[in-house]
Amino acid sequence: MGVFRHTWLEARKVFVRMLSNGDAASVSGDALVDALDPTKRLCKLIISCRKASALEHELDHSGVRVTPEVAERVLERLDNAGMLTYRFFEWARRQKRGGCAHTVRSFHTVVGSLAKIRQYQLMWDVVAVMRKEGVANVETFCIIMRKYARAQKFDEAVYTFNVMEKYGVSSNLAAFNSLLSALCKSKNVRKAQEIFDKMNNRFTPDAKTYSILLEGWGRAPNLPKMWEVYNEMLDSGCQPDIVTYGIMVDVLCKTGRIEEAVRVVHDMSSRGCQPTTFLYSVLVHTYGVEMRIEDAVATFLDMEKDGVVPDVVVYNALVTAFCKVKKFDNAFRVMDDMEGHGITPNSRTWNIILNALISHGKDDEAYRVFRSMIKRCQPDSDTYTVMIKMFCDNDKIEMALKVWKYMRLKQFIPSMHTFSVLINGLCDKGEVSQACVLLEDMIEKGIRPPGSTFGKLRQLLLKEGRKDVLEFLVEKMKMLIQEPLFD
Questions:
Q1: pLDDT per residue over 156-204, tens digit each?
Q2: Which stretches are PPR repeats (predicted)?
Q3: Which helix (H) or strand (E) holds 264?
Q4: Helix (H, G, I), strand (E, B), or coil: what is residue 297?
Q5: For 277-315, b where at least 16 C-beta lie within 10 A, e where not — what string?
């Protein structure tokens, strides 16, 4: 055990040294957290807490009074923090003077956060508290159905719909549509259709119900079945709306039938149904994917001519089109045009350009764009992941760590993918100690590492004869709660 302790302490020292490097000017600038802002103070405290078990002690001595509004903001900012999120939620409930009466949104944030890391027993415990306090609603169960379906737990998603009444919430058409949508979005349209056929007598299907099934079959793809559902919709007397048309245009474009999609748009217009920016964005994006840049630009101009004001989504589609044909100068001009029309490029806009530059081997330019981005827009998880991966792939682990350090200084909670990319990069570089510390940090936040990432680190530890460290990490992994469905 002494050898293990020495090895692990050495690994921690390496990690501390790693974090101490970087741009001092940036550190001094970003470290000036507004001491009067309780949300920022709490987020900083929670993120810097290395041990989930020590969080309550740190919070008790923070001196911060938590109101329901403050708790809501903290939870929303830390919804990726896994067990730390839950521990803060529980701590706030147990405060003196009756505790913090969490808002419904706070409850929902925690329910989603726990489901994301598959802490299902705790998730249902929170729902039980909501039932007791009389705040559980349809959206509560819609969140759970979506999370179960995303985890490919389809029977549990159906169970959630069926158990609503036990929690004092009546199932309705909105919940029914949410169940169908969750199944379809998780590529199980057959299950959704089966449930629809069994239950549609309980509810009167609306345009949204049919649109969900249309989208599911369209993305299968099974166009004959999609048209069958569409005809059934018309036969039932339910008229398609703008969402229905949007789904059909999207499906037709994704299956290479763009000319047919254009005809649908024209047919809409002739019926007095004005096409939306979404429909135009789908057409522009599809022309871009097919490298038909002239058609993409023409469609964009037609949209403006028809009086449809472009939004960030359709602008992003045009940026994608120019990036596809390597016309990066044009892509930047589109961004300038956006700002000229009062539309701020979002993280998606920048990510499109970053991904395109990296895919074409323009890594130096990608880094320059990233540096420009952080002055004008808040990066998201995809931004940090793609930049860290770029540096790891180019054997520039120091730069990857610099991006990681900047992300942490911004109090951005890394996702499972961001953690994994850097851990894999450290393993490839042979930096096993740093990889171990990062993996422990990941586990402490309640984020379960992918099997491939843990497997790579496991092989390196065995190769170096560090079975003690491996056993420690395995025990840490076992502490993550893995429970089946609970009532």
A1: 999 999 999 999 999 999 999 999 999 999 999 999 999 999 988 889 9
A2: 137-171, 172-202, 206-240, 241-275, 276-310, 311-345, 346-376, 380-414, 415-449
A3: helix 258-270
A4: helix
A5: bbbbbbbbbbbbbeebbebbbebbeebeeeebebbbbbb
